[in-house]
Structure to design on (743 residues):
């Protein structure tokens, strides 16, 4: 089974209209804004693990479990979440780390040992670690001008 | 602990390393230490930037300066100027090939605009198992807007205006397809999502379903509203367990939130979605075969017309679209048909996702605007050919497509250009081949696949492809003559012209396109009994070169049939009568003493 962290288990209320939907979106947007602009007020670290078939086949499940456990053990306030394929299948498992107020950084070929290094060096001390994958695409958001 | 003020990212990809980026890395470190900046500036090696043509690359953060073609000797200047004085080293900046201007900030470079993620917009951004994240990323906004503010006719018109064409391979305009289905009368209509991705090496649909399942659900509801369907079916192969699991979670969550079911968002429109499993037959990607498979019949195609829009699932009007096509739909409504139509070429709008595979450095999933050239895809985004070998061909369109060669590298990729070049878009598999690939063997590989996957309903495909395969085998064994080459071509034409469905009509493409582009290789097999790439086992033999052999016994120890004789420090020999030509000796030899002859 996949592990899911931060899954909310509260009762849902149905969304009944477009206005409802938009309100809901506004409430939820803070969550994503943290990811897109990485200006988290609480100063939380966000770790996303690419968990598509390519990632899982290369061991991302163990890496995600390890990161979640270790961050907890080392008392680092962070959100670990899973996401889809970032496209860097040649360098799986890949993880994206967003430190508060910083641009997201993607690391490739992350095994447990590398994960430990990333936690200790990058997440704790903001010291970049070898193995960064440069992002080479545009999202539709930053394509707005065209 | 010091907080670094500046980072220098040095590319550590194969391409840049071949141009001494590792020495450059050491030099930068040394220079920084000499300047006493080791606590302020950090040097880091990274993965491939994909811009190998201009390697080695050094990127300086935080000002995003992008240096190209940096030599180890440039380290001193970069550190002295950029790190100490804060001035960019102008002569190392990237020069735009069009307007000849220097570009300092990597964000301004054309290269980084080469990939635009539309269908993959949320893959790698949101958690696919949490609907709230999708909602936060404009999820279901398009559906809400269409249901509340647009008539079905207006919504279809928007789709027509966008110019979106089916991403499953055929490239039929999606808006027109919807229009046709909307005009057919019927008490019950269906929307079907074709998630039967069968091309070997292609995995874009799987990635979308694994990374962003809600976008497909949202698009299906919109599609249902447009054509008047209240039921949606997703036909997915059972061999995609993770995609199925996430789809199920997504459907449950959407129902829970009232985004599927009755009276969606108070619009009075009902729509629900079910999953149907396929057994993974390639022919079931063809829409009529897919529909029969869902009905519980054999997965065999039937003649069109009638089209599924007239008589589809259970004889009712049905609209079938592919996963990637659907993934584009919500964005089109959110950002407008005009925006979408501004990307791409005149007749092919938007982007296309390709699964890059084969002998390429950056194997992976890319999304590029239509009209990009193969050169840009392979050498810039893909990071070039593995191990510095030479590019030979790229296979697009899977078993239905063909091989494109050097001369096609600068052709803009879109639906029509690829067909003109003797291949097709297909669903987006892109397999890159280098000098070590034999084109006869490649054609044989695809024919082997087609023979396996032919449903057997019509004889040209069932028998013809089998005969094609046998002819190719004969050529690969060096037993064929010139007449066989003519037969190969003639039979290919017959199969192409007389098969019932798309599978047979396109199955000879790998043969025809390799014959068109690499006839010399076919002739070498036939006339000289020689496989130029050294792949076809019956035409090659492994030999030990006496001058290079040091007698290390590595080959003899690894030979699975023990056909290599020789004592330590003595010359080894291969017994050709026992050799199975597995190539293990070639792989293990560290002294270049084994050769293919």
């Amino acid at each position: 089974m996949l592990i899911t962290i931060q899954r909310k288990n509260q009762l849902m209320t149905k969304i009944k209209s477009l206005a409802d939907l938009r309100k809901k979106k506004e409430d939820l947007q803070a969550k994503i804004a943290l990811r897109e602009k990485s200006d988290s007020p609480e100063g939380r670290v966000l770790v996303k693990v690419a968990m598509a078939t390519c990632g899982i086949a290369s061991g991302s499940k163990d890496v995600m479990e390890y990161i979640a456990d270790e961050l907890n053990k080392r008392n680092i306030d962070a959100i670990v979440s899973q996401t889809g394929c970032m496209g860097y299948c040649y360098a799986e498992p890949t993880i994206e780390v967003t430190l508060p107020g910083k641009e997201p950084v993607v690391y490739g070929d992350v095994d447990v040992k590398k994960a430990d290094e990333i936690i200790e060096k990058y997440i704790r001390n903001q010291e970049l670690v070898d193995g960064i994958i440069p992002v080479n695409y545009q999202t539709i958001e930053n394509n707005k001008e065209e | 602990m010091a907080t670094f003020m500046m980072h220098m990212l040095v590319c550590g990809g194969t391409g840049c390393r071949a141009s001494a980026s590792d020495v450059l890395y050491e030099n930068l470190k040394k220079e920084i230490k000499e300047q006493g900046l080791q606590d302020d500036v950090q040097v880091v090696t990274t993965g491939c930037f994909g811009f190998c043509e201009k390697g080695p690359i050094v990127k300086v953060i935080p000002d995003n300066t992008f240096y190209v073609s940096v030599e180890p000797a440039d380290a001193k200047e970069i550190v002295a100027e950029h790190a100490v004085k804060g001035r960019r080293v102008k002569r190392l900046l990237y020069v735009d090939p069009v307007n000849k201007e220097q570009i300092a900030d990597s964000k301004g470079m054309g290269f980084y605009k080469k990939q635009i993620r539309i269908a993959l917009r949320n893959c790698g951004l949101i958690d696919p198992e949490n609907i709230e994240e999708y909602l936060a990323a404009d999820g279901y906004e398009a559906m809400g807007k269409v249901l509340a503010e647009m008539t079905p006719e207006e919504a279809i018109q928007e789709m027509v205006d966008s110019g979106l064409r089916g991403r499953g391979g055929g490239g039929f305009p999606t808006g027109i397809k919807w229009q046709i289905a909307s005009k057919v009368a019927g008490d019950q209509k269906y929307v079907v999502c074709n998630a039967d991705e069968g091309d070997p090496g292609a995995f874009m649909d799987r990635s979308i379903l694994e990374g962003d399942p809600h976008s497909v659900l949202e698009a299906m509801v919109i599609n249902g509203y447009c054509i008047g369907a209240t039921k949606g079916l997703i036909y997915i192969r059972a061999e995609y367990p993770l995609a199925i699991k996430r789809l199920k979670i997504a459907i449950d969550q959407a129902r829970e939130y009232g985004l599927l079911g009755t009276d969606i968002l108070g619009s009075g429109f009902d729509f629900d979605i079910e999953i149907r499993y396929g057994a993974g037959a390639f022919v079931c990607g063809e829409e009529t075969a897919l529909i029969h498979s869902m009905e519980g019949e054999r997965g065999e195609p039937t003649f069109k017309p009638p089209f599924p829009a007239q008589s589809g699932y259970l004889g009712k009007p049905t609209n079938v679209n592919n996963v990637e096509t659907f993934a584009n739909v919500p964005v089109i409504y959110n950002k407008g048909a005009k925006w979408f139509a501004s990307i791409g070429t005149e007749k092919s709008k938007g982007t296309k996702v390709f699964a890059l595979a084969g002998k390429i450095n950056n194997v992976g999933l890319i999304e590029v605007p239509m009209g990009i050239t193969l050169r840009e895809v392979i050498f810039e985004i893909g990071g070039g050919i593995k191990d510095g070998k030479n590019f030979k061909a790229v296979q697009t369109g899977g078993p239905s497509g063909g091989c494109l060669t050097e001369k096609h590298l600068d052709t803009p990729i879109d639906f029509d250009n690829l067909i003109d070049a003797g291949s097709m878009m297909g669903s987006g598999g892109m397999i890159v081949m280098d000098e070590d690939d034999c084109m006869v063997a490649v054609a044989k590989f695809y024919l082997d696949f087609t023979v396996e996957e032919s449903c057997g309903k019509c004889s040209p495909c069932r028998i013809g492809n089998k005969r094609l395969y046998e002819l190719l085998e004969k050529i690969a064994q060096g037993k064929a003559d010139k007449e066989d080459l003519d037969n190969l071509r003639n039979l290919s034409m017959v199969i192409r012209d007389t098969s019932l469905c798309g599978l047979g009509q396109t199955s000879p493409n790998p043969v025809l396109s390799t014959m068109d582009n690499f006839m010399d290789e076919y002739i070498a097999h036939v006339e000289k009994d020689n496989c130029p790439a050294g792949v076809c086992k019956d035409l090659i033999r492994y030999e030990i070169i006496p001058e290079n052999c040091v007698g290390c016994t590595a080959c003899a120890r690894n030979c699975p049939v023990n056909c290599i004789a020789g004592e330590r420090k003595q010359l080894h020999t291969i017994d050709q009568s026992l050799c199975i030509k597995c190539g293990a000796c070639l792989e293990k030899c560290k002294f270049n003493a084994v050769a293919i002859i």
Notes: The beta strands of chain A are 45-50, 78-83, 95-98, 105-107, 132-133, 138-139. Chain A touches chain B through 58 residues (CB under 8 Å). The domain at 38-137 of chain A is CATH 3.40.30.10 (Glutaredoxin). Residues 18-36 of chain A form the longest helix (19 residues).
